[in-house]
C-alpha cells in the first residue's frame, strides 16, 4: 500500500476544499444542473457526499466508543437519504454539506492512537481499521469534486491520491470479469495489471487519465494500435 494515514488526512482536506470551492455560491439552478453521473443532478451528488460524511461519522463513533454503529441502518437508507437530500432547497442542502463535513472532521481529530486501530465495518461489509476512514472520505470528495461537472478534472487531484486510487481500484477489480489490461502511467512510470480474459491489452497515458479510466469516468486513453481502451465493469 503506497499511502499512509497522514497522506489520507491531507487528501481528505484537499478534496473537501476542492468540493466546497466548486459549489460555493451556487443557487437553485446550479444545483439542479446535471452532474457527471448518469441520472443524478448536482443535488443528488451533494446529498450523497453530505450523507457519506454522516455515515463515516458513524464509523468514527464506533471506533471511539466500541459501540457497533454501521454506516447505514439498512441497505436502503443510503438511497433514501440521497433522494431526500436531492429534494432539499439549495441553501438547506449546502448547510447539510458543511455541517456534516465539520462533524466528521471533529470526530476524526478526536480519535486516539488506540481508537485509530479499532476495527469497523464498511458499507460493503469489509472489516477495516479506523485508519481507513480518512481514505474512504478522501476518495469520495476528490472523485466527486470531478463528478460535479464544474471544471475540476482528475489532473487537479494530488498525484499521490491518484496513484493510491489506481492501486485501490485494481485491487478491487482483481476478481472481476472483463478483459485483461496492462496500464502504464507515462508521466510517473507506475504500472498496473488487471487480470481478465484474453491477451492483455496495453493502455498507456498520464496518471490522471489512468485513474479516470479505472474509476469509470471520461478519459482520453487508447489501447496500443489506437483503438479505444476496453470498457471496464463497475468497481463499486
Automatic annotation (TrEMBL):
Q: Write out the transmembrane intervals.
A: none
Annotated Mycothiol-dependent maleylpyruvate isomerase metal-binding domain residues: 17-149
Give a GO molecular function annotation for the protein: metal ion binding
The answer to keyword Transmembrane applying to this record is no
Which Pfam families does its entry note? MDMPI_N
Which UniProt keywords are present, listed alphabetically? Isomerase, Pyruvate
- For this entry, the protein name equals Maleylpyruvate isomerase
Amino acid at each position: 500500500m503506497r499511502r499512509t494515514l497522514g497522506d489520507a488526512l491531507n487528501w481528505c482536506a484537499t478534496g473537501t476544499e476542492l468540493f466546497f470551492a466548486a459549489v460555493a455560491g451556487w443557487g437553485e439552478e446550479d444545483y439542479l444542473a446535471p452532474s457527471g453521473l448518469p441520472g443524478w443532478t448536482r443535488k443528488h451528488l451533494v446529498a450523497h457526499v453530505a450523507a457519506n460524511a454522516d455515515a463515516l461519522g458513524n464509523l468514527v463513533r464506533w471506533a471511539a466508543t466500541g459501540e457497533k454503529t454501521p454506516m447505514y441502518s439498512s441497505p436502503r437508507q443510503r438511497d433514501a437519504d440521497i433522494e431526500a437530500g436531492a429534494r432539499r432547497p439549495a441553501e438547506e442542502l449546502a448547510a447539510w454539506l458543511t455541517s456534516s463535513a465539520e462533524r466528521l472532521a471533529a470526530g476524526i481529530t478526536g480519535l486516539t492512537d488506540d481508537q485509530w486501530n479499532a476495527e469497523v465495518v464498511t458499507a460493503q461489509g469489509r472489516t477495516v481499521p479506523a485508519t481507513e476512514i480518512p481514505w474512504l472520505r478522501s476518495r469520495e470528495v476528490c472523485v466527486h469534486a470531478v463528478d460535479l461537472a464544474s471544471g475540476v478534472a482528475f489532473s487537479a487531484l494530488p498525484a499521490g491520491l491518484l496513484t493510491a486510487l489506481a492501486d485501490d481500484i485494481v485491487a478491487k477489480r482483481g476478481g472481476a470479469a472483463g478483459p485483461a489490461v496492462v496500464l502504464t502511467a507515462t508521466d510517473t512510470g507506475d504500472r498496473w495489471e488487471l487480470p481478465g480474459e484474453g491477451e492483455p491489452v496495453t493502455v498507456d497515458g498520464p496518471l490522471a487519465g489512468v485513474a479516470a479510466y479505472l474509476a469509470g469516468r471520461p478519459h482520453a486513453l487508447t489501447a496500443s494500435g489506437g483503438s479505444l481502451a476496453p470498457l471496464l465493469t463497475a468497481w463499486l
